[in-house]
Amino acid sequence: MTTTQPYQHQLLYQITPEDYNALRTQLSAAAPEASGTGCVHTLRFNSYRPLPEDMEKASFALYYFDNDPTYLLLERRLGDERTTAMVAEAECRALLAGETDWLLERRNPVLREFYDGLTEQMLLPQVLLTYHREVYTLDGLDLWVALDTDIRSSLQHMDFLDPDLLARDTAGQEGQLRLAISYSNMIPENMVQLLARTAAHAAGL
After folding, report:
1. Under a CB-based contact definition with an 8 Å cutoff, are residues 150 and 57 in contact?
2. Which stretch of 2-16, 49-63, 80-94, 191-205 has the lowest confidence by average pLDDT?
3. CA–CA gap between residue 117 and residue 57 (Å, rounded)
4. Are 34 and 138 in contact (CB under 8 A)?
5. Which residues are paired to 204 by β-bridges?
6. 3-class SS letters over the chain
7. How many CB atoms lie within 10 A of CB 99?
8. What pLDDT is attached to residue 193?
9. Mean pLDDT (the chain, rounded)
10. Cα–Cα distance between 44 and 62 in angstroms, integer?
């Protein structure tokens, strides 16, 4: 699967099947040689302790790709800014079992802040998502665009590292569709125009 290492900013939009078909046509034409597909599993964490109104809360999520949890990505998001740290499967299994000391032993600022969230803000697993992702990177642009399909959810976070159990947990769900855009500083005008053409095509204009 083409890497989906995140840029600093990301936009997410829920889309319809008509949007998906139009976007896929436009993106495939714009980046025929720079696309990849794969499966993504993500476990999101949420704080259940209220924070002061003037304090912006960072959110955290774990990701792994193509049904292989050997190495995972821990993403920290504050507003539209994102930072990440790598996590090994054994470390993730320890985390799911309630073991958190290794987060400090790694001496990584993202892992340290995640540890503080777990211990001070009651940060707990919230929802597990599994979906299929098509990634498009356009030559010369500091961004990637992804179409996420068959998005399914589960609350069985202990099954996170077992793709077969995840498939069982989410069987029978009607998967949703989503557009993701990850970029460095700004979305170039030609990308904005591409999305505008797609929206017009989907609307039949």
Report:
1. no
2. 191-205
3. 10
4. yes
5. none
6. CCCCCCCCEEEEEECCHHHHHHHHHHHHHHCCCCEEEEEEEEEEEEECCCCCCCCCCCEEEEEEECCEEEEEEEEEEECCEEEEEEEEHHHHHHHHCCCCHHHHHCCCHHHHHHHHHHHHCCEEEEEEEEEEEEEEECCCCCEEEEEEEEEEEECCHHHCCCHHHHHHHCCCCCCEEEEEEEECCCCCHHHHHHHHHHHHHHCCC
7. 11
8. 72
9. 84
10. 7
Question: pTM of the entire structure?
Answer: 0.82
**Phi, psi of 167, rounded to the nearest 5 degrees:** -60, -40
Query: Long-range CB contacts (< 8 A, 24+ apart) of 102-109?
Result: 109/83
Tokens representing 167? 């498939």
Comparing C-alpha atoms, which of 38, 106, 98 is closest to residue 74?
Answer: 106
- For the record, the structure tokens of 203 come out as 């609307």
Q: How far apart are CA 79 and CA 57, in angstroms?
A: 8
60: which 2 tokens?
């955290």
Q: How far apart are CA 121 and CA 71, in angstroms?
A: 26
Alpha-carbon span 123 to 51, nearest angstrom: 12
Is residue 100 within 8 Å of 115, Cβ to Cβ?
yes
**Both tokens of residue 102?**
């290794």
